[in-house]
Amino acid sequence: MARLRRKKCDEARPVCAACGALEIDCHYSDAKPEWMDGGLREKQMADELKAMVKQKANERRERKWGLLPTMMDFSPSAQMMQQQQQQLLQDSQSSDRVMSDSGDPLPSEYGYNPFSTILSESSQSPAGSSSTSASSPLTTTTTTESQVSAGHHQPVLPAVDSFSENKSEVEVNFTMIYLDYVVPFLFPFYRPCLLESSRGWMLVLLMKNRALFHTALSLANWLYAVLFDSMKGQHSACRRANWAELQVHQETAIKALQEDIKALNERGVANAFLESVGCMQSVIQLLEFDITMGEMSNWQAHHDVAVALFDQLITHHAVRDGDVGAWTSILDRIGFPFFRIRIENEKYILASDQSAFKFYTAYLLWIDVIAATALGTAPRLQRYHAELLQGDRPAIQLGEYVGCESWVVAEIAEAAALATWKREQQSKGILSMIELVHRACAIQRRLRTKMASLPSVPASDRAGNIYDPSAYHPVTPYSGFHEMLAESSSKKSQAVSLHTQIWAQATLTYINVLASGLQPSLPEIQSSVEATMALLRALPSPLALRTVTWPFALTGCLAPTGQEAFFTGLVADMGAMHVFGTVREALNIMQSVWQHREGGCCADPQMWDVATCFSVLGHISLLV
């Protein structure tokens, strides 16, 4: 093989030094092999050898994740942790375990879904807890209730590895692309001030969490893929290389998350606080990847696991003490021994891990509510809304994360819960229309009262004088946003107000459909649709459409005949970026609904609702 590679061979037996170092097959014989003919067969063998060298190099890099030390490995705490790990390793060697030869979880037969082989199908929660949702897919496999009560608590060890210092320059570069381009495009309203830990926590988390790190790089590769595709056939080699890199990072992320979830299952959420937080954040990041790619076949599984982890974190680790809520006690424990310092209103100086937990909590609450409207169920995390979303100054102010104020999201949750109640009553044959209308009107009154306090939309068709961070193209770097202007905060609040009005007006439409069925010709539905369309016209840029996908889709499904061009035009104006997220999915939904309507399939309005529309493509669409 050394000869084929034009390298010097030391002729050692049975494996020469060159082949041994590369971990490839060593073929040595006094007789010349048949394939070494100086022609096609020799070229094929050379190509196979190159592929083998590359594969083995990738495997060696993969093994280095847990082998190469960082500066943190030499701290006293790291030394103690290594001793604990060695002790646990000795204990595990004495027990019988069924594992693969490498000790890794067996791969999922479904490929993309990382949870099918690592989460038990049992509905019981860790340590026999009955307070967690019965549909929770996450269970422990080694920690039993008797062990916990007997005091058999093993030390908490991180299931999420820190990656080594010698990351390639390409990965470092794509890390910054993720932070400077992808994050501002996906979360244009998320601009934490310096005292709130700024965005530094994101880099800290990427450095600590291997699964999340590779998912972030996948998102950066996806942005590149979208931009390359917009170049009309140019840079084909770069496109292929970028797509291959995306797949490698995503496979690595899934494998890392499988390992983390498996370790967490063995320990149990009750005995692994920080690991549980890390796993929850990794799953939510994977859910973010699903949404950004427009991949609708896996988001429900990832949503289920994220909700289960959040539930069990509260169940096993929250401390309800006076005015401190359950979620807040988790936030405080993450930051221990440091305490939150109030800056103003409900803003605090937070540690990096606290900022990460708050961010992913906000995103999960947001997804959970929008998912409920598509699934036709009540939001699974609705019991936490009183602490996190309701009130004049909620703990999670979603306007700072997604551009829509928390009170609108809380009312969407109420409407989704009412839709579930209606469906249950209908199935029993005891639906009271008086009760339905009464409850629907109560939600509408609360919405209209809040909407009346919002600033009015500028008279111009497009609110160009509003500083709206969602209006910027992703090639605009983070530093290019005008956040340094003294008046930027007030200008940004105007943009949040506009986006909040769009969401609130679409929610009124949602409630009208809930009460009356899918009847676009009803006056109250027509007027609400027209009001939402007027607000969509006021968006300062077509790119801002990505932050209002749910209102856009809902309004489009109910748009009167002849208005279809308005919605298709908005998507076309986004250019190539309409595939980066769920805007394309929203357009496909409304076009399918239009076809059904023209074919007379929507003749019975009571047979169609919003959830029906969002599943019209043959799968349930999550539009965030």
TrEMBL record:
Annotated localization: Nucleus
Sequence segments annotated as region (Disordered): 78-106, 120-151
GO cellular component: nucleus
The entry's keywords: Nucleus
GO molecular function: DNA-binding transcription factor activity, RNA polymerase II-specific; zinc ion binding
The Zn(2)-C6 fungal-type domain, residue ranges: 3-32
Entry superkingdom: Eukaryota
Biased composition (Low complexity): 79-96, 120-147
Predominant subcellular localization, coarse grouping: nucleus
Name of the protein in question: Zn(2)-C6 fungal-type domain-containing protein
Native source species: Xylaria bambusicola
